[in-house]
Amino acid sequence: MATILVVDNDPVSRGFLVGLLQNEGYAVDQAEDEASCVRLFQAKKHDLLLTEIANPEEQRLEMLRALHWNNPNLRCLAFSGDYNLSSYASLEHAKAYGALDIFTNPFDTCTVLELVRLALKT
Question: Which one-letter DSSP state was computed for residue 31?
């Protein structure tokens, strides 16, 4: 069974993703910030990281870069609920830092599940 780590400071968004993935049979851990994410990822190498990326108070791109640097085979999907140019740029930067793909919130559940399936196959 694949293990997935979901990182989002918004408990509603995070809870939705966790529930969606658990209903599909995935083992899911969750973190609300970078420190929790790094701690959980170091304790248990997850098969996939799903992280909200465009939170200006957080350093998610730097976290993603560091995790990918130390774990070159890290599989990651990045998402954002913000609809502005800087958020889109952050999502595009996430690809350069190791994210396989990006998506936006509100989530289309079919799209999210397909991206997860594809990411876990690579």
Answer: E
